[in-house]
Amino acid sequence: MGESTEPFLVRKLELTDYSKGFTELLSQLTLCPPITEDDFHSRFHELQSLGEDHSICVIENSSSHEIVATGSVFVEKKFIRNCGKAGHIEDVVVDSRVRGWGLGQMVVNYLSDYARSTGCYKVILDCDVENGQFYEKCGFKEKGVQMSLYF
Q: Which SUPFAM superfamilies does its entry note (predicted)?
């Protein structure tokens, strides 16, 4: 079950979120061409099979039943730190119509708490420079340099 901060409900992704604008919301973050409901269901079940190693948080507007914010966390199992775990936050986006309402911070807090609850010794994320201040407000500190190789 999720947490309610009227008029918003913070919870895990559900199958019915396909029809609530979940993938359309992701397109406000990056390329996310439309996918079929069958493809959504297939990926949902695949991610669900990972158990506690992956979680997607959504915020639903309780009045309109639209998904207005989301983010995910992947738990990486390591050999270092006594076979420790690290959380990786990805794909945080808030609908442009409700930015500035604190929903992004709610998503990041949910995902950070999730990582902590699964035994992660840290949670990390990559972001654009212009989003750095937002993540600092969420308690993150700049560390290192991000590098990417796209295929």
A: Acyl-CoA N-acyltransferases (Nat)
Q: Tokens at residue 93, please?
A: 């986006």
- DSSP annotation string for 130-146: GGHHHHHHTT----S--
Instruction: Answer whether 70's CB lies under 8 Å from 27's CB.
Output: no
How is residue 60 annotated by DSSP? E
Task: Note the pTM of the prediction, 2 decimals.
Answer: 0.92
CATH C-level class of 3-137: alpha beta
Taking the CB of residue 24, how many other CB atoms lie within 10 A of it? 13
Residue 46: other Cβ atoms inside 10 A: 10
Provide the percentage of residues in the chain whose pLDDT is more than 90: 87
Nearest-Å Rg of the Cα atoms of the chain is: 16
Contacts 24+ apart (CB under 8 A), 33-38: none
Encoding tokens for residue 106? 């709610």
